[in-house]
Amino acid sequence: MDFNVKKLVRDAGTALSRVVQLTEEKLGTSEKTELDAHFENLAERSDTTKLWTEKILRDTEAVLTPNPGNRVEDFLFDKIEKKRPNRLSNLEYLGLDMMEAGNDFGPGTSYGNALIKVGQCQQRLGQSERDFITAANHCYITPLRKFLDGEMKTIIKERSLLESKRLDLDACKNRLRKARSMQGQQNKEGVSPEVLLEQAEKDLRVAQSEFDRQAEITKLLLEGISSSHAGHLRCLQEFAETQVRYHAQCHQIMQDLQRELGSTQSACDSASAPAPMLRVNSEEVDLTTPIMSPVQDLQFTVSD
């Protein structure tokens, strides 16, 4: 219990010291330890990577799942590790209604038959879209989210810890300067100025060591962003290839539909074509109408 109280008091003192140091830096009354230019460049690239990865992730999710409500629902199901609902796409709903209408109008009619064929096409397009969304989530969305939730969160945590170590270091530097300025003066608390100076130097050495160690850890993590970029590039290439295959499948489906509708239209045109006409003595004769023989047109009169 005593140990916990002491630790609590020590942590509270450290937190207060950091707040004071940060406030003095804001007011310009205290110096701040600056990191080297290479480290700052790494940190800036990390921030840029986080910003654009989050934006690209949101945009890609909006393309794959345009309905915001569905995106929220999918997110919640992923968090609780449950299978996403198997909802139909708009294309599939359109295909179902077209097929139902075609059957209602009659598959034997030209319009009903065409509706059924186009509806089946929409169903195939919807299935291709579903396959594309699944593949894109696997090859692109999941790796980006994993990077943000894993590596990037670790970097942010370590950078925050580094900032705390930096505040501790600068606070120790300030205490050391004050201890040196008090040499030869009587301390109100009755503690020798030499003892205060020795303690301040010791605290500074410890703070500097912890700061240097944390800076090295954070630097290694920041340098790992280059490897992350290489991994994101591979994921981006896979996403583009998946999209190419998806559009190629859709193109093939539409070409097949075009041929089917073309053959149906040709058959309809042949069935509804006007009957051929024969011109006889400047008059047109319908060849589909039976032609009476001249003999049948003769009238005979029998005389007694």
The largest β sheet comes out as: 2 strands, antiparallel
Helix content class = over 70%
Count of the domains: 1
- Tell me the Rg in angstroms: 41 Å
Strand percentage: under 5%
Mean pLDDT: 83
Secondary structural class: mainly alpha
CATH superfamily: Arfaptin homology (AH) domain/BAR domain
The CATH C-level class name = Mainly Alpha
Can you describe what's shown?
- Residues 24-270 form the BAR domain.
- It holds the Pfam family BAR.
- It comes from Gryllus longicercus.
- This is BAR domain-containing protein.
- The protein contains eight helices and two strands.
- It has 304 residues and is mainly α.
- It has a single domain, classed as Arfaptin homology (AH) domain/BAR domain (Substrate Binding Domain Of Dnak, Chain:A, Domain 2, Up-down Bundle).
- The protein has a two-stranded antiparallel ribbon with strand order 1-2.
- It is rod-shaped.
- The protein starts with a helix and ends in a 7-residue tail after the last helix.
Topology:
Blueprint: H1 2-27, H2 37-64, H3 68-79, H4 90-105, H5 110-181, H6 193-223, H7 225-271, E1 277-280, E2 283-286, H8 294-297
Antiparallel strand pairs: 1-2
Short description:
This protein has eight helices and two strands. Strands 1-2 form a two-stranded antiparallel sheet. 78% of the residues lie in helices and 3% in strands.
Describe this protein with a few key phrases.
304 residues, mainly alpha, Substrate Binding Domain Of Dnak, Chain:A, Domain 2, two-stranded antiparallel ribbon, 8 helices, 3% strand, rod-shaped, disordered C terminus
